[in-house]
Amino acid sequence: MPASEIRAEHGRLNEMIGHGTWNQPAGTITDDTEQALCIARSLVEQQRFDPKDIAERFVAWYDSNPFDIGRMTMKSLSRLKHGDEWDEAGQHVWENSPEGQNAGNGSVMRCAPLAVPYADDWDRLVEVSRQSSQITHADPRCTYGCAILNLTVAGLLDNADTPLQDALDYVGTDAPAELVAALQPLARGDSPTALETSGYVVHSLQTALHDGLVTENAEDAIVTAVNRGGDTDTIGAIAGAVAGARFGASQLPDRWVSAIDEVGELESLAAQLKEMA
């Protein structure tokens, strides 16, 4: 999107943030951030990655009747609530979902907190990223999507010159070919002729990584991603994670941050996750 169009759209995003979306009060966080908070709280309180504990936190959140929840996540958390183990529920839902309904973006939208404490241990980062996805989204496009996103975020935190290419090189041929093929042009610096905004994990990652990596500042990255339409909160969340790692939290507009009730906890958790590293 040209810079002139990005500037013209700032008001639209500001209005959405200022007045709330989904008929919710201003500053309301969606399921993307709520699940990311479950992961971050677990990491800080357990001082390690504990998928069973994260799964239990997801179930407690599910029981709170959230106003927004993805289909695969809902099915997986229902199975967890009724006795499945953390590494069984998502697998069962995936195996019983047809192509086109089995690789949603519900795990990549929440996984970024893992990139902070495991930024310097890429083997472990790939492992925990894939396991965190497996709780609700077991398709390899989802599990490796989380790994590639978190490796990219880790590279950005380390000021890598080619963070996405480094991530793709690291997972190598283990990652699904369809996912790699969608992301490889971005790693070369090419922009696809069309960027999709569906809830399909490959589309969401391609679009969000594009916007997070090519724009000139964090605000433009998030504005561009959200104003594409489609699954706006998730694509915006992923692009925001990339832009945050690339530019730093201090570059987020104060008018956005001040509208979020959970900002104090988010800042505290971020600092504690950094200490874990």
TrEMBL record:
Under the heading Gene3D superfamilies, the entry gives:
ADP-ribosylation/Crystallin J1
Give the superkingdom in one word: Archaea
Q: Which residues of this UniProt protein bind Mg(2+)? A: 30-32, 231, 233-234
**InterPro entries from the entry?**
ADP-ribosylglycohydrolase, Ribosyl_crysJ1, Ribosyl_crysJ1_sf
Query: Which key words tag this protein in UniProt?
Result: Hydrolase, Magnesium, Metal-binding
Q: What is this protein called?
A: ADP-ribosyl-(Dinitrogen reductase) hydrolase
Family of this protein: Belongs to the ADP-ribosylglycohydrolase family.
One function term, GO molecular function aspect: hydrolase activity
**In the record, what lineage is assigned to the organism producing the protein?**
Archaea, Methanobacteriati, Methanobacteriota, Stenosarchaea group, Halobacteria
